[in-house]
Write a structure and sequence with these properties.
This protein is α/β, with parallel strands linked by helices and 332 residues long. Helices cover 46% and strands 17% of the residues. The protein is built from 11 helices and 10 strands. The strands form 3 sheets. A 6-stranded mixed beta sheet has the order 2-1-3-9-4-10. Strands 5-8 form a two-stranded antiparallel ribbon. Helix 2 (55-71) packs across helix 9 and helix 4 runs parallel beside helix 11 (306-327). It starts with a helix and ends in a 5-residue tail after the last helix.
């Protein structure tokens, strides 16, 4: 009898407790749900691994302005150059919460540098890849008065006169340096590499006759101004802004520089937040002011959504490792 009474007394209590707990469940889950459902509710920081005022920084600011309009919240640019443009991204991956409020620019060096030297990040594990935006157009440019009219001319001279021609790059292991090493290996030509701190210094050196040519990006202003001539670009296709400039592939050299940049964040971001950011940056990539900047810098639009960009990042990491090993490049 007592046992039956206890059961009858406890059953309502159990049901009441269960009902109460069920009622509390949405409240317990509410913070995480609200974080994704109302994102963003405050300004977002985008860390750029290049110095303020440079070409990439200007592009990033134009993209951030357009994305801010799409999101309804401001995106604040924070410049953290260093470690071949990966310092800022590395710090975001290591220190920031994966809540979508700390983002970083993800340059191609993120996938090459680990093959060249010890780095404090793993590009395959430490990042969320939100969207790829564009790619740099690297090209071989010479002074207007240069006797070389094509990449074939340059290669022929470099083969017949090993080490007589010099070119400027932004450093050992950079995209332009690796492209030239691959060109040398492919053709037997030999050129002398001279490192500089920036593309601005490189083009000044070319115009001043201190080096013979440049394989760097951001050459558009000098070519448009009639001071330099472009012999060829390291892309799969010609760019709309320069329809008369052939690719190296068209000239018989199968070399394509995959040097894109995109937007990422720390690993472990909420898929709903990734979707919101991806959609905003896709819309921003179509902004007329941003597209004019890409056209000015001879850069193609190369938007990839998060799944596509993530696969691309893994493939590029493997590809960069292959080329670094084949060329035997190491950065001390």
């Amino acid at each position: 009898m007592r046992s039956s009474l206890i059961q009858e007394t406890c059953m309502p209590m159990t049901r009441r407790r269960a009902a109460a707990l069920m009622g509390m469940a949405p409240l317990m889950a509410a913070p995480s749900l609200r974080a994704a459902d109302v994102f963003p509710s405050k300004p977002i920081t985008l860390v750029v691994g290049f110095g303020a005022g440079g070409g990439t920084d200007v592009q990033a600011r134009a993209l951030a302005k357009a994305a801010s309009m799409a999101l309804g919240q401001s995106i604040v640019i924070e410049n953290r150059p260093g470690l071949s443009a990966t310092l800022g991204a590395s710090q975001v991956a290591q220190r920031a919460a994966p809540d979508g409020y700390s983002l970083c620019m993800t340059p191609a060096t993120l996938f090459r540098l680990p093959h060249l030297q010890k780095v404090p990040f793993d590009p395959l594990k430490d990042f969320t890849y939100i969207a790829n935006i564009t790619a740099y157009t690297f090209g071989i440019t010479v002074p207007q008065e240069s006797p070389f009219k094509s990449v074939k001319d340059l290669v022929a001279f470099g083969r017949a006169n090993p080490g007589k021609l010099s070119y400027g790059t932004t450093g050992k292991g950079g995209t332009s340096h690796l492209m030239m090493l691959r060109l040398e290996k492919m053709t037997g030509a030999q050129f002398n590499m001279v490192p500089f701190k920036s593309s601005t210094e490189i083009f000044s050196a070319v115009l001043g006759g201190h080096v013979d040519f440049s394989p760097e990006a951001a050459f558009g202003t000098h070519v448009n101004g009639g001071k330099l001539r472009s012999l060829g670009i390291f892309l799969a296709d010609r760019v709309p802004s320069r329809p008369d400039t052939p690719t190296l592939r068209e000239q018989g050299f199968d070399l394509v520089a995959k040097s894109s940049w995109g937007i990422g964040g720390p690993a472990g971001m909420d898929p709903k937040i990734i979707q919101v950011l991806q959609d905003a940056f896709q819309k921003a990539s179509q902004d007329s002011d941003f597209k004019r900047m890409l056209m000015r810098d001879d850069q193609p639009a190369l938007f990839m959504d998060s799944p596509t960009y993530t696969r691309y990042a893994h493939d590029l990491y493997a590809e960069e490792g292959k080329y670094v090993r084949e060329l035997g490049v190491k950065v001390e």
